[in-house]
User: Fold LegC family aminotransferase from Pontibacter locisalis.
Amino acid sequence: MQKAEETISFIRDHFKSKGFIPLHEPSFTGNEKDYVLQTIESTFVSSVGAFVDRFEEMMQTLTQTRRAVAVVNGTSGLQVALRLAGVKAGDEVLTQALTFVATANAIAYNGARPVFLDVDLETMGLSPEAVKDFLIEFGEVREQGCYNKKTGNRISACLPMHTFGFPVKIRELVELCDEWKIPIVEDAAESLGSTAEGIPTGKFGKLGVFSFNGNKIVTSGGGGAIVTDDLIIGEKAKFLTTTAKQPHTYEYVHTELGYNYRMPNINAALACAQLESLEHFLKKKRELATSYQIFFNSINYKFRTETEGTRVNYWLMCLELENRKERDAFLKFTNDSKVMTRPIWQLMYKLPMYENCLRDRQENAKYLEDRIVNIPSSVN
Ligand SMILES: *Cc1c(COP(=O)(O)O)cnc(C)c1O
Assistant:
């Protein structure tokens, strides 16, 4: 475990710590305390308040979209975004098996079923080729959209995920799915600050969703945002996530089954302060990625860097090890030494609730599942 040992000392040097080193911890060095205190002093800590509006405006600017809607977490954002894309019970939604469980859960919450397709080796995200192969074999465009001609179900959305902030081949996916009349919802939970062709992730699909959980690049404690360029869909997102309440001076009028998914003002305050630091975080992470790259080249470990035409936020940085055995040994050795490392996720169809879902051969997903590990990536 010579290389793993050298890795540990490099990481300890960088983070200047002999103690436990986490994978990703938040950094609060800006206006966080000030803004959170303002919500307490004004008593507006909950569902009404100026920071929610400010957060939504900041997200619109950052993602270059026309409407951002703050929600309670990324998972609920995905659930509502899929519903707004037109996903209904009994439908099929194309996605990747190599993802965090929330991607698949958001599909299931709508009563729909995920179809797990393979990822690209370079991006670790949904492969346009895999989607194309699937659609050629199973897809049929009818008046109401795309159908799976073998199961008879509607294929009502495609949900690619930008793994660890590395953008998927989103342009190709958009072009392909347009042809097949399938709307795209981007799971951009991990990719705030990442771009493809200079355009922010989350802006390419009909809707995009971000997460502000404690482990993400920017945190609101817990939170999420739905973004879209379609103002009508944006309004509907606000409406559905705020209990579908019709405006009225005093009556409670609800005309649809809505959700209480709004982000509290106290969380939005934290999010606003964090977003002010995003550029700084991106810069620090890029510096760490550069030193990692030089170091890992020198010991002959494969460190993942951005693919052509993309800018990666380097949220969680990763190594590609030789095989499952080397991966397991590396994980054990580093974690035993109190340097936190984690494997990439288990493929979704291995989980009991998704074991009967449609899927393709998953060659690349299996390859990556056996080899990719995350290494400490905090801003320090
Ligand atoms: C974090 C994450 C989510 C969910 O976000 P929460 O805010 O934790 O609900 C969804 N998808 C992916 C890929 C994530 O990493």
Q: What stands out?
A: The chain has a mean pLDDT of 97. Residues 73-75, 99-100, 102-103, 161, 187, 189-190, 211, 213, 224 surround pyridoxal-5'-phosphate (CB under 6 Å). The radius of gyration is 21 Å.
